[in-house]
Amino acid sequence: MNMRSAKMLVWAGEQCAAIRIIGRANFTSSVDFKTLITELRQQGCSYFVLDLAECVLMDSTFLGVLAGFGLKLSNGNGDPGKHGIELFNPSARIIELLDTLGVLHLFKVTEGSVKMTEQAEPRAHTPTSSTKEEATRTCIEAHQTLMDISPANAAKFKDVTQFLAEGLKKPKSG
Fold first, then answer.
1. Fold of 7-128
2. Which tens digits make up the pLDDT trace of 44-63?
């Protein structure tokens, strides 16, 4: 099955970065998104603007990775201040998913056009190629994050997380 990753366009300043996510933000793009945000944070960015006007869907793995960063950056209080994640123009479906998973409070949601508060330069972004093991670990971590943030998610994700973890324990054939 060919699952196309979302395309990500990046503009970054010293403390703020804007990322336009185009297409389906799913498990195949989760590792790339996680790597991108981690690298930008290491370079000093602490506020992220995600332009979701062209993001048609986010699956639970991508939502879990996003929620994990939302939790780290907002200290769990949903007030991004100078640190956090702002979601621009998310679809009603994405808002519903974030709300249902109990993580909407971690983000500032804004409608309108993205305006950077500092000079930002476009940055080349080449998607990373991840191994199956790395993608599986990211999937497990994302779902565990969703369960940690909202215990109501345990019923939704406990079995899939356990199944994936057991798959990692199996010896690799080679």
1. Transcription Regulator spoIIAA (3.30.750)
2. 999 999 999 999 999 999 99
